[in-house]
Amino acid sequence: MDSRPENAVNGLKPTISVYSEYLSNRISSCFPAAASYLSKFSNFYRGNSSGTSKRRRRKTCLPLPFPSSSPESSMVVCEASKVVGVLEDIMECIFLNMHYIQKNLEYWQSKAQGSNAKKAYFMICERGPYAFFNGTVQLISDCVGEGSGVQHTYCLASSYISERINFLSSLRYHLATFLAQIYMKVDKAGEELVKDPEKSLSSLLVDMNDLFLKLEASIGHFHAVRQQSSSVDDSYSFPLIFEKLPEVNQEGSQWTDCEITDAINLIYQNMNRLNRYLASIVTIHRKPRRVTRYWIPYTCGIVGISICSLWLLRHSSLVGSSDIDNWIREAKESTVSFWNDHVEQPLISIRDDLFYTFRKRHKGAMEPEEVQLTADSLHRMLQAFTEQTKGDKAPPNATDQEMLEIVMMRYEKELMHPIQNLFGGELSRALLIQVQKLKLDIEEAMLELDQILRANEINFAILAALPAFFLSLLVIMLVRAWFKQDKKAEGRGRVARIQRRLLIVEVERKIMQLESYKDQGQEKDAQCMLGLALYYLDRLYCAVEGHARATGEWISLRQDIIDLAKPDLQTAHKLRITSRMERIYDCLLPLPIRQ
User: Fold this and answer.
1) 267, 2 in Cβ contact below 8 A?
2) CA angle, corner 327, sides to 322 and 328, nearest 5?
3) Which of 146, 285, 455, 464 shows the greatest Cβ crowding within 10 Å of its Cβ?
4) Helix 523-551 crosses helix 81-112 at what angle (to 10 degrees)?
5) Domains of the chain: which residue ranges?
6) Residues 79-103 pLDDT 10s
7) Residues 354, 360, 365, 369: what is their CA dihedral angle, to the nearest 10 degrees?
8) How much is the pLDDT for 518?
9) Strand ranges (DSSP E) for 439-580?
10) Sign of CA dihedral 271, 273, 274, 278
């Protein structure tokens, strides 16, 4: 068995990128000498990186179920830090691979729910130029020959998608079972570690090796299952074969440090083999890359850019034309003119309105002094008319309204003989008094209107600035959305909260299915449901940690997630926990509905 120094074990880290593993496998199969060189370089890197930095992990991960309530258990876990690191790397490896499988599985499931027309479009137009050419030729030949080309395309698309769904579902099933078995072993070994640490560590390493061998028996046959009618365009280049611990190590009751190191190295070798194998088979069944799915729009864009480039070249100075220079100059002048007319001048006008409004208030269209002069003149006219009509002096406390009533009564009497009284009576004088009253009413109305306009000058200035304000607000929102990238469950928006609540729904569903399979005695399916529940709990754990720390809820929420992951906790208690999580924690509450 390959022996490495202890610091190499601490520096080992699981392969995160399945693409790098797949590429390494391809190089190994095509160029053995290059593969040997890469292996030596990888070993050298592992041996030297541990001295300068710690093992890099994901930002966060679902904790292992080790006991942490007593000082003795904490001391034991510290002593077994190498084995704990191995277990954490195994869990992280399985979580990452399951997430990669889950993303591809969700893509194919969404395609399976589409209509036949969408499936046919995918088969012909979203699998690259080669598939487009072959699919078009096959469709035309089927339509000309048998007349059922469209139906044949529908059946081919359904078979193509179903095959990938079945394969990825089966692979996820075995990985989830493997994850559940590891978690249950660690949960069981946690109590034994406190009682007998030395024997429990060796027993735990043996159990991990046995679980890898069981996983090999479960998914190692995938390379030989490919049927002749399969739509997979590639074959699996190597079978999954794990290394096995020597019998002498398995029988010993107490291991030396060298034997523990060798066992850890063997587990890392098996984990790397698992990564390479999963990278190889999942890449064959993965969803098409974005450039493959959208190759038609990309091709049209490239053709359009090429045509535009040729057109610009014809009008550029490279061929002796000054059209582009003229267009640039005109565009610059238009931009400057637009800035001056629609941005700078309106802003200057708004600034003047804001700063000089109160200085201009004394320059109104009608002043109170002018209105008071008109009112005093009318009062004297009414008083003189009343004294002349009644023949005695008007009361000092008589109001304008009372004296105006006397004028109107005299005016009605004079209208009985209008022509006679116009020249010899008081009719003309009564008319002039009414004109003066009308003038007073108009001046008062103008004064009130002027006061209203003066009071709302600042409002009109703000109203003039609203378009620029809304435009700035829109730009800020777009920039914020661009930097925030609120798409996944880790975000802060409405969509992210919905994704986190859906993770809780998936956890509840898997817990209920786990209980159902236990009641039916289907132990293997129950382990798969436990593994899937652990996977969704890990995603929830990663998604809520930052938000819960910001609100001070993390300690309580973390404990609830750990309790949900416990295999022996009753289902009813777990469902109460999920219900409480949806109602209590701020990062899991739905945002209020916009009106």
Assistant:
1) no
2) 100
3) 285
4) 100
5) 74-285, 315-359, 366-481, 486-582
6) 567 778 888 899 999 999 999 999 9
7) 130
8) 92
9) none
10) positive
